[in-house]
Amino acid sequence: MPRIIIAGASEASRTQLNRLLTASGFGVFRLCASEGELRRTLTECEDGIVLITGMQADDIAADFEGCFQFLLIARPEALEACESPCVFKLAYPCPGSAVIGAVEMLCQLHAMRLPHRSGGDRALVEDAKRLLMRREGIDEPTAHRHMQLYAMRHNMKMTDYAAQLLQGGSNDG
User: Fold this and answer.
1) Which of 2.40.30.20, 1.10.10.10, 3.30.710.10, 3.10.20.90 is the CATH number of 119-166?
2) Distance of CA 135 to the CA centre of its chain
3) Prediction pTM value
4) Are strands 4-8 and 48-53 parallel, antiparallel or unpaired?
5) H helical segments located in the chain
6) Strand 68-74 and strand 48-53: pairing?
7) How far is C-alpha 16 from the chain's CA centre?
8) What are the angstrom distances between the C-alpha of 143 and each of 10, 139, 158?
9) Which of 62, 119, 158, 163 lies at 20 to 30 Å from 17 by C-alpha?
10) Tens digit of pLDDT for each residue in 36-55?
């Protein structure tokens, strides 16, 4: 199950979405009250689903495209102002069933885009993360994010970068 993050300026809307998702069996990772808090959370996570209400979504979606699925829940005029093609949109007010349906669809999209690593590849990545954690003094999510970003920037698979690290290759961050 992907991490679900709810971001909105209104505490009432964040709480309402949290209750709706929790009652429907979804686990909510974090509630964010500001764009800065949301950016810090997204940087900390490796991927997930972000529900945004009462905030602009274009810049955040552009900065984190490929790692996260975005759902903007807003009035029609705010939806029209959002030009990002990677943001799914849902007009407010909407029934809870529409929100749940949209989140279920985003969960399916999330599952389809995840890499499916074999046991050996998974072990290779875990060994490389442990090496980075020990060498750099960082925690597991930071090591994972470092490897993910490096691999993306250098157009390589994370398992290939893991093998390179374990063979004493790249120290580049």
Assistant:
1) 1.10.10.10
2) 26
3) 0.67
4) parallel
5) 11-23, 35-44, 58-64, 76-81, 96-113, 119-136, 140-153, 158-166
6) parallel
7) 21
8) 33, 6, 12
9) 62
10) 999 999 988 878 999 999 88
Give the rounded distance of the alpha carbon of 80 from its chain centre: 24
Residues in the chain: 173
Candidate CATH numbers 3.40.109.10, 3.40.50.2300, 3.40.80.10, 1.20.120.450; the one for domain 4-113: 3.40.50.2300
At 112, list the tokens: 């389809």
| 3-class SS of residue 115 | coil
- Give the pair of three-digit tokens for residue 32: 């964010």
